[in-house]
Structures are given as structure tokens and as C-alpha cells.
Amino acid sequence: MFYRAMGPLINIQKSKMIKVKQTVQFRRSQIQYLKPEIGRLLDRRKGYVLDVFVPLGGTKSLVKVRWIARRPTENDVTMEHPLEDLEVIA
What we know:
Elements: E1 2-4, E2 9-11, E3 23-26, H1 28-31, H2 36-42, E4 47-53, E5 62-67, E6 77-82, E7 86-88
Antiparallel strand pairs: 1-2, 3-4, 3-7, 4-5, 5-6
């Protein structure tokens, strides 16, 4: 879709919005900004969205995600991340 907003044409693409009960993963481009041990934990791991919210006094959305264990010896981990750092798995 194209829109004209006070100047040149702007191409607005419909992106996949993150909703509750979706499966997500951490964006590969954002893993490099995490601590090494957290980056290794979240690399290519699937997560289940529990909640999407904006904290009081905040301006950016946060997503509460339960990261699924890869092996029987591991435990599920629940963490909060900025909305921009996650992507929906089809």
C-alpha cells in the first residue's frame, strides 16, 4: 500500500504483529547486543508469548516470553524483551 503524507510516497508494509499465544524467536541481528551467556541461551530457541504490555511510565512495548527448553535437563525460562527484538515464527 502506498500513502502520500506531506511529501513523497511512503510504502507501508503489513508486518506480523506479535500477539499472545504466538511462537516467537529472538532476532539474529539483536542477539549480538546481549550478554554472551544470554545470547547462547536464546540463540535459535522458540518462545511462547505470555503477555504484551507497556509498563507504567514507559513508551515502548514489552513482551513476556516463556522460552521452551531444548533438552529434558533444561528448564523453561520466562523473560521480558522489547517488542522490536522478537519475530514471529510461521
